[in-house]
Amino acid sequence: MKIKLALPSEDKLNISDSLFKTYFFKITTFDTATIIHEEYRETYTIIDVNAETEKNYKKIYEIIADCDVIIFRTISEKFANYLKSREKQVIITPEKIITNAVLKYVIEYNQRESNTCCCP
Hints:
Shape: globular
Radius of gyration: 15 Å
Number of strands: 5
CATH topology: Nucleotidyltransferase, domain 5
Strand order of the largest sheet: 3-2-1-4-5
Oligomer: single chain
Number of domains: 1
CATH class: Alpha Beta
């Protein structure tokens, strides 16, 4: 099953501490334990970095609408609820480095899946 992750970043290496200081989303697609695609999507040209508004939520959502899971270091409850209402899984991580957060998610996902019984 393919899963697409989105992680906000200012520098393409670390997860942003603030959503509105995000210049990119790193998008990682994986299938089982294999990363099959990675890309960066720009945000800094379309969002108002000084305002947490419904308009900005919509602009950000358009960038990550095809993603299943969005991983943040911090996120306002209002924006988390906005994403959850659109059936996105929101995860808060203590990890700062994007690669570490992605690998941790993939490992934990595969552990959960291997513990799921599929027998009748």
